[in-house]
Design a protein that fits this description.
single chain; alpha+beta; globular; 16 strands
Length: 404
């Protein structure tokens, strides 16, 4: 499909963790279950976002799931049930812990032909006591570093330090995840995750072949984009042509990661409606290696989401509701709730390959204690006397110096 054809595409950028472990046993089965749950959440969140956002969308479901998995370890009762349902987390705990440990070890392995790593961190208010069992789970299974900050006394300094940690681990691509005012004196802890990827195409595009072409956004809007191309005998890819849908898989060097592109013939909305974990699995089974000319635009996306309302709508409202949230497995009380769930992601696609990253931060705070009200008339004031029923003012005055 070249420029004249309507080329609106939805790209699903998935870090396909189809890892070949030496032992094809329980570990492999556990991972398949893990990936199925994560993919299901990915597409359900995409669907939730796309209902309100008609423009570009880009996020890292793995990053969001990582951060919320750490939150889930501290949840109990209804709050835990809701989070588990939305994110499709595994039970029992031993199965879930093993999987996160396996996945993080695989992502962060040293010998690979691409850059891919993930990191977790837990930031705790100085003097705020969390249960040692919770801290142990975060450190052991989620490889989370644990640090103390002073959210109460030095809120801005704490915010900047967390943002700096994220920026450094995403090669300065993700900045200012937490905006000014997003954390406050009631914040007791923040959980963060970053994931960063940089990979070269197995079959790179030739820069000399890239030229500006039409990209049809809608019937009314056509824009010019730098269109890359691979043609000729080298253009062999896993490809499928289904009814009103084309799918292509483009590998990165090492052939452990790939980009899947879903290109509808016309209607992107209909594709979005049918985009489920089950359907995607069926579609991908149709891929076969074929000779196919590829025309693909260069692009950059930077997106930020505050996920509170999305996740409430998807079925986890109590975690964000003071008085209803139950994170008693964190500190032994029911005072904590999620103040903010922020996510930022970027992607750049060019002739050489792809650079992408995501960062998620979850601020957890305590319900504000009602402030005792004090009325101290120790300076000039105005007063009035009025009828209660009608509100009619009968007298009005000002006390400027009561000694006169």
């Amino acid at each position: 499909m070249e420029g004249k054809h309507k080329l609106i595409f939805l790209f699903i950028f998935a870090f396909l963790l189809n890892v070949s472990y030496s032992k094809e046993s329980m570990d492999s089965l556990l991972q398949k279950e893990f990936v199925k749950g994560n993919n299901k959440f990915s597409l359900e969140l995409y669907s939730n976002i796309s209902r309100k956002e008609k423009g570009n969308i880009f996020f890292s479901p793995f990053s969001i799931s990582s951060a919320f998995a750490m939150v889930y370890e501290g949840a109990s009762g209804k709050t835990a049930q809701e989070i588990r349902s939305v994110f499709h987390f595994q039970e029992p705990s031993s199965k879930r812990w093993k999987n996160w440990e396996l996945i993080l070890n695989e992502i962060n392995k040293k010998s690979k032909t691409y850059e891919l790593f993930a990191a977790n961190a837990l930031w705790i208010q100085e003097g705020f006591k969390i249960l040692p069992e919770y801290k142990g789970v975060i450190e052991k299974y989620y490889k989370g570093s644990v640090s103390n900050l002073d959210f109460a006394g030095k809120t801005e300094s704490a915010r900047l330090e967390i943002n700096k940690w994220i920026e450094e681990r995403t090669n300065k691509k993700i900045k200012n995840l937490f905006s000014p005012g997003s954390l406050n004196q009631l914040t007791k802890m923040v959980l963060t995750n970053v994931i960063y990827f940089k990979g070269e195409w197995l079959k790179q595009f030739d820069k000399d072949d890239t030229r500006d072409e039409d990209f049809r956004v809608s019937k009314e809007k056509i824009v010019k984009v730098p269109m890359m191309r691979i043609t000729g005998q080298n253009a062999r890819f896993n490809y499928a042509e289904l009814e009103k849908l084309q799918i292509i898989e483009m590998d990165y060097k090492g052939e452990e990661l790939s980009m899947i592109v879903l290109l509808p013939e016309k209607d992107i909305e209909k594709l979005e409606e049918s985009l489920t974990e089950e359907n995607l699995g069926k579609w991908l089974k149709e891929l076969r290696e074929e000779r196919v000319d590829v025309f693909f635009p260069k692009f950059k996306l930077n997106k930020k989401y505050i996920l509170n309302e999305n996740l409430k709508n998807m079925g986890a409202p109590s975690a964000f509701t003071p008085g209803e949230a139950d994170f008693s497995k964190i500190d032994g009380t029911r005072k904590l709730f999620i103040q903010i769930a922020a996510h930022k992601a970027f992607v750049e696609v060019n002739e050489e390959g792809t650079t992408a990253g995501g960062a998620t931060g979850i601020g957890i705070g305590v319900t504000a204690v009602p402030v005792k009200k004090v009325f101290r008339a120790d300076h000039p004031f105005i007063f009035l006397i009025r009828e209660k029923g009608s509100g009619n003012i009968l007298f009005i005055g000002k006390v400027y110096d009561p000694t006169e």
